[in-house]
User: What shape does this take?
Amino acid sequence: MDEKEDRGNYRPIADYAAIGDCHGGALVSSDGRIDWCCLHRFDDDPIFCRLLDDSKGGFLSLQPLANFETTRAYLDGTNILRTEFRTTSGRVTVTDFMPVGRTPDARPHDYVSLNAPNWLVRKIEGLEGEVEIESVYRPSVAFAKRSAQLAATEGAILVKDGPALYSDMPFAITGDRAKATVKLSAGAVRFIVVAAKPAAVTHERIEELLAITTAFWREWLWYCRYDGPYAEAVKRSALALKLLTYAPTGATVAALTTSLPEQLGGERNWDYRYCWIRDASLMLYALAGLGYASEATQFYNFIGTASSQSFSDLQVLYGIGHESEVEEQRLDYLDGYARSRPVRCGNGASDQRQTDLYAYVMEGVLTFKTLGGKIADKERKMFGKLMEFMEHCWAEPDQGIWEIRAAPRHFVHSKATCWAAVDRAIRLFGEQDDWVALRGRILNETLAKGRGADGDHFCQTFSGDASDASLLLLPAMGFPADERILRRTLEAVETELRKDEFVWRYLSEDGLGGSEAPFLACSFWLVDALLFANRQGDAQALFETLLARANDVGLYAEQMDEKSGAFLGNFPQALTHLGLIGSAVNLELFAKGGVDALRGAYADRAKRYVGATIGWRGMLAALRRHPLKIKFLSSRRSRLI
Assistant: This one.
């Protein structure tokens, strides 16, 4: 790839901030452009996708006509973004949000969009002097495959097969876009609303929805019980994770976007707008450690509906409405972010075998039970069938946690998580001879074949010699290897895959062309592994360096270029944010109890942290309000009030 190749007029990924309503989401740049938005659902065709094609993709811009400077921040404790524009003649502020709230008769945590679902709101206020501003609206239709057909009516711009724009600004149509220009003086207020359905929009309604949405986010964040030294970053990460949750089903998406590249000009461009079972289970552990209970109920209801036959039928990922078919398509008519092709819609990893997912689901169930939740006796039969499935599944090769697009291999991380799945079943339902024997076989095989030629550290695959950052997770899952081997594994990962604060996932062949940048979640896993190795100073220094790598509003992408510091990959990335939360909690646990406070499973650490911060009475009360109802064999849709 020629590094000097023209990459077009694309904003840096770090230049965006995310807003959403737990149904869809949007990305807003620092200069007032909304270049990505899915209104109805995270995985819908976007109404704005300039992020993936600067010439064809739709957008909604809003900025002064004169030269300007900006500052921006989320309203405290919310996912509501406020951007201030300053010119030589005055100042204006834009508040961007997607309305979300709680029905008046709903129980705490039973959140839905209230009265105005699928709205994107821009409130513009004059602060000082007078500023002339311009807004341009160009919606995308069929993922920008064809141009939008616009029609003007009083107070609105209607779009055939697309959303309507409502505004008290005078929009006029030219071709496939509408434009408005207005002078705003101090005290004046204007609005722009993009709505999926016909709507009645007034200033009063916008103020009401802004108040409801502010209350929603702040009420949800109030339940966060982390008050350690990194509270600002932890709470922003928690808000980002909640923003990525789809309220109707409890699913959580890996990111808001598709096809943001892992390498500029490369082919490693994937659609992350789906629910990965592994990532979502880890997210529940992260939120449980902060004092949240209801997300577990919603997510496991999602799993129950998605897996209509048996637990062993679980896929790697699903559509957020429980869809099992997630066909991957190439949209070759799109330019791609910074001319990185192909743009993909759908994700072919849904058909892969990744045996680690069972362990992470089991870990989530154990976390729930450890914190006081009740699991019905009848579920033992279901888990027994899973253990029967694990009898042969663990010994087969798979695509691994990184979803390689090459022949399956015997990944050490996959084997260790199979051990963990059986171990958690034993902890949940008691020892059975066949389960104990199975756990022992997996452990012995992994210890015998998973180490390098020198025998002193684990490698990526059986009989291999390369390192893999997923091996950093072995201490966190309580894998019972000798501590000397785990320390040497950590050192091998640092030697082969680390450069300063950056960690690559792996450097071995994976069936794809090109390369990728360091993976930010792996850097947080390294923080945890350093703590397990009793290297507290190194862990804390690395963590604080990583905190400084967030963008100006506290968000992270999937990867980062180690030379330029530019974000790469999809954004905002759930796995990175939950890694941050986990490391912050582990640092606090270590500070209070050393390595012993970290030992065991994820569930054990959640219990120690919750017990030390919010107490058992508060968590048990939350769990009683939201009992876990695992219905893995039922195809009935879960109900969200």
